[in-house]
Amino acid sequence: MIKEAGKYLFIFFVLTILYSCHVQNRDENPVIPVIFDTDMESDVDDVGALAMLHALADSNEIEILGVMVCAENPWSILCADRINTYYGRGDIPLGQLKKPGVNRESLYAQQVAEEFPGTLASSVDAMDAVAQYRKLLASQPDTSVVILTVGYLTNLRDLLSSVPDHFSLLSGKDLVKRKVKSWVCMGGMFPSGREANIRWDTDASIEVVNQWPSAIIFAGWEIGNMDTAHGIPGLPEDCPVRRAYESFGRIPHKSWDQVATLYATRGLENGPASGFWKLSPPGQIFIDANDGSNTWTEDANGVHRYLIQMASDEEIASEINALMMHVPE
Questions:
Q1: 137 and 26, same domain (yes or no)
Q2: Could you tell me which residues come within 8 angstroms of residue 5 by beta carbon, excluding any fewer than 6 positions away?
Q3: Nearest Cα to 53, choosing from 148, 120, 154?
Q4: CATH number, domain at 237?
Q5: pLDDT tens digit string along 179-235?
Q6: 232 plus 103 within the same structural domain
Q7: Do 37 and 182 belong to one domain?
Q8: What is the pLDDT of residues 85-112, one digit of tens each?
Q9: N- to C-terminal Cα distance for the chain?
Q10: Residue 11 belongs to what domain range?
């Protein structure tokens, strides 16, 4: 009996140690809650970025809190829904721009929406993006949420100007200040240039970067100008990511949104990919109201930073490709 009791005591001791290690590892590598804001219409790198997020969610590195669409194109949110459904997350909250905004032609969104199963029948049925933002942010711990934008800044402009409601008694700006940990924006060219996400809704871009109540990290055009998605034709035929890239007609393709996604998930706060880039000195992005071009001014008191690439294109592309080629069980 004594030996038997000793054996169970030993097993209990080992299990306690293993559980403690698991909890410690979970605390040291917490799951990152991410809200993904995309146009999902003009270019196909939005699709690659969403595929990466699902791979990261499957490895328990992140939680996709919601997917917001910042474009009027009615097929964009349906396309995002089909991708979410393919990866087994058809229940991810969606938000659709309901106010006037950018509406550009897509070479893939309608094809994916019509050919693949999903949970959303029409963009009209989707929740308003601002209301969805407010609902999700209000439900999260303070300073915990990472917002990743890879499209126009229309939704964020509208979020900042939102008023208290049944989700939160805070104004949009105060809600962002309390709940958002980091905003990573695929936008701009540094130190200067004219990039699509910033210029297509120039007014919204100017308002957001001037009023955002905390720091902004920009992943500029220049660090995403690398080819990825070489293996897309090898994905299963029932994969909407493959269909989107084939419809778009460029394989491999550039990786602006994927670079921003990799940084937002594995690059923040000494993450496993943090050595791929360094942050610029503090400063301020200035956006020209006439043509949407941007310039950069260093300012020790500035709250804007942009990413400067340190690793090779090949090293970064390899990690992006590995995530994009993930196939759900």
A1: no
A2: none
A3: 148
A4: 3.90.245.10
A5: 999 999 999 999 999 999 999 999 999 999 999 999 999 999 999 999 999 999 999
A6: yes
A7: yes
A8: 999 999 999 999 999 999 999 999 999 9
A9: 46
A10: 1-30
